Amino acid sequence: MSHSTTTSVKADASTDDDQRADQASDAFMIGVDTAGREHYFSRIRDCVTVIDDDGAEQTQALNDRPLKNWMAFVEQELGGWDETNVYSGSTFTHLARQLGNAVTVGEA
Asked: Where do the segments described as Disordered lie (predicted)?
């Protein structure tokens, strides 16, 4: 009895698709830290997944801690955020901060 083994080589572009498939269906990007790592949050899995420039993926369980704790950890321990989709406080304050950032970038 002969067995045939098929090996397929994936294109680099499909690696990103595989990483997204590994994440929960509700995962959304919460931001990019100052080192360029993308942070994704999943309520279903109660975790944050961090993907660096090389595509390496690391997942951290939140263990029912609020997402704001992770946001603060990145801010205090990992050098902060370059951009974020999560904020606390009023919508007006958030929009004013985003506008200020856009003006500052435009001046450079």
From this structure: 1-23
Enter the tokens of residue 94. 């958030």
Q: Provide the whole-model pTM.
A: 0.62
- Between the CA atoms of 41, 66, 80 and 27, what dihedral angle is there, to the nearest 10 degrees? 10
Residues 40-60: tens digit of each pLDDT: 999 999 999 999 989 899 999
Two tokens, residue 23: 């994440």
**Pairwise CA distance, residues 96 & 92, whole Å:** 6
Q: Rounded to an integer, what distance in angstroms lies between the CA atom of residue 25 and that of residue 51? A: 16
Checking DSSP bridges between strand 38-42 and strand 47-51, what pairing results, if any?
A: antiparallel
Cα dist. 67→1, 41, 57 in Å?
55, 8, 19
